Amino acid sequence: MLNSINIVPLDSAYVDTKYLVSSGERHFVVSETLAKFLETLKQSQTFEEAASAWSVWKGEAYTADDVRTIYETYVLNVLNTEPPKKKTFLWSKDILSRGQVDVLQDIFKVLFRPAIIIAILLLSVALETVFFMQGNKVSIGEIDLLAIMILVITMLLSSLFHEIGHASACCYFGEKAKSIGLGLYLNFPVFYTDVSDIWKLSRGKRMVVNFAGTYFQLIFLIPCIAIYLLTGNQIVKYLIYTINLNFIFILNPFFRFDGYWIMSDLIGIPNLRGKSNWIVLALKNKILRKSDSSGFWRQIRIKEQVLLVIYTVSTNLFFAYYLFFVIPSLLKSCYLELPGQVKRLVVDIAVGNSITFSLISSVTAKLFILLLTFYFFYKLIRRLFVHD
Q: What residue ranges are annotated as transmembrane (predicted)?
């Protein structure tokens, strides 16, 4: 088991050096002492040999039984413990296996060569500037079923290409993405990529991997903008606006999307959401005059302490706004507008009238939001009262 683990320094905001221990598909953050102990065990043939080397490093005598006890208490129990179920998504399903992802990321990793990145970004900025100077009004009007299917498929391909970007950047830096899948986060569906091995990389490289999805969608936009500038097609224009708006959503640092992981690496704190929740609990304990046994606050530098407090306050304000204003507003809109829109859609279909894209997209979006919101609250309530 020890021969299969990998130990590397973790680039983080901790005052003391931390190490990342990888065992199969799992990763652990450990202290320098435990990392050295694991290295000692890996380099030794017996516990007696490990005890001799460990005694020299620690400057005090350890027996083979002492080393065995440390191994069984602090190493074996952890490595043999089943990992907790992921709670990021209410539902998730891999759609591309590791083998399929390997093929794609090996093909596209070349796009992360510095010269290519600079050229693509300059071209993207130039085309985006020209596009937005054309005006922001979209007039699609009537649209047939084939056009709607093409639009939906193109949006899905854009999102999938986004995930291939994360995988390809991971591959460029010498690691491998494990899978690409589809999940339900809060009340909306999202694609995801398992790039957990990037914790072995430096913070700068991890940030490149996290930005890579947006970078690939900029690449996807290049032919789209060129087609629009040549044809003036309003459906293509609608697609370009949708992808650009998606950048704001994806780079939001509060949801567990690209922006969250970028913020985590920027501050240098793994499990940023968990640590921000810890601050709330620590404040509660202080008000109740309970002691804090974790010592986490003393483990990170002052600058990162300030950034973490700012992030924690901002996150809680954002989610309060989202849960108590955004979702109720969406539900109110569905309640007031959806029945009339559905009736109008049914009547138009029945009498053979042309159906506008705006009506179809509005009804579809409201039904989608309604169903996913109800599913979100169902899963939320189930988590609170039903323990698997």
A: 111-133, 145-165, 207-229, 235-255, 306-331, 351-378
